[in-house]
Design a protein that fits this description.
Layout (H helix, E strand, L loop, with lengths): L16 H5 L7 E4 L6 H5 L4 E5 L3 H12 L1 H11 L7 H13 L3 H14 L27 H10 L3 E4 L3 H6 L6 E4 L22 H16 L3 E7 L2 H7 L4 E8 L11 E9 L2 H5 L2
Parallel strand pairs: 1-2, 1-4, 2-3, 4-5
Antiparallel strand pairs: 5-7, 6-7
Helix pairs in contact: 3-6, 3-7, 4-6, 4-7, 5-6
Length: 277
């Protein structure tokens, strides 16, 4: 029913799009402060989009795809030759990705690493070095159709590489904001949120909740996804409507450890709209 993104992404929203779209009303513009794989962007239908992510490598890829996907696909395809699906080649390409100043080469290598690396993780150390290990896949799918689909739709979008708060600053009354931040950890060993240098702290989570309530008061509908925990429920409070849904997580290599968790969707409906429903 829905189109898949060309990027593998931990926490991808593909499996809960039905529930998400129930909370995203019609509008002229959708703003995403945390773009990620772009699944919501790809499968929604708004006239205009503002897509932001703090990860410069991710936005770099989307920027090139917006310009011209034909040449990009042709060159990327050469990296998906079976000869390059080896540990030695992967780590050689990873080293090149971490050292090159050529942004076009970096964009090509980002997708190669994403599809060949472990579980589609996007992780950096404190020095900003991409450090995801090799995935050991017998075959690696080349997502040509998925790249073409998202490239065409990017014509409707403006891209930003900035702090999430700056995307909120660009919102105007009547816009919709959908937030898919790095999730609150369920426990001390379950935090897979270091998709950009510096991670995402509790203070960031609290700031996001404050911005959502402020935006609601300005007539902007905001929706946030996160783990359903006592902490997240206390952060979002009475200013929004919260619903909880079970979601299957598949970070661990052993399927027996891929357990279902509860995920919440917090909807901040502008006051004047809420009073009329």
């Amino acid at each position: 029913m829905y189109q898949r993104s060309f990027i593998k992404w931990a926490g991808n929203k593909y499996t809960i799009l039905n529930q998400l779209f129930e909370t995203l009303p019609p509008a002229g513009k959708l703003i995403e402060p945390f773009l990620g794989s772009g699944s919501v962007f790809l499968n929604s239908d708004y006239q205009r989009y503002l897509l932001n992510d703090v990860n410069p490598d991710l936005i770099n890829v989307f920027s090139y795809l917006k310009q011209d996907h034909t040449q990009f696909i042709s060159q990327l395809k050469t990296l998906f030759d079976e000869r390059y699906n080896t540990p030695d080649t992967y780590y050689s390409f990873r080293a090149a990705f971490n050292t090159t100043d050529d942004q076009y080469e970096k964009a090509l290598l980002f997708i190669y690493l994403n599809r060949h690396g472990y579980q589609g993780l996007c992780r950096y150390n404190l020095s900003g070095v991409f450090n995801v290990p090799y995935g050991h896949y017998k075959r690696v799918y080349f997502p040509e159709d998925e790249i073409v689909n998202i490239s065409k739709k990017l014509k409707r979008a403006n891209l930003m590489n900035d702090h999430f708060s700056q995307a909120f600053r660009r919102a105007r009354k009547g816009d919709i904001i959908y937030c898919d931040p790095p999730y609150m950890a369920l426990n001390k060993t379950a935090n897979f949120t270091s998709y950009s240098t510096g991670g995402f702290s509790y203070e960031n989570q609290a700031r996001l909740a404050e911005l959502a309530e402020s935006a609601r008061n300005r007539g902007i509908h905001v929706v946030i996804s996160n783990h359903d925990t006592p902490i997240t429920r206390s952060l979002y409070g009475a200013a929004c409507h919260v619903k909880s849904i079970p979601v299957r997580r598949s970070i661990n290599a052993k399927s027996s450890k891929n357990k279902s968790v509860n995920e919440l969707i917090a909807s901040y409906t502008p006051i004047e709209i809420a009073l009329n429903t």
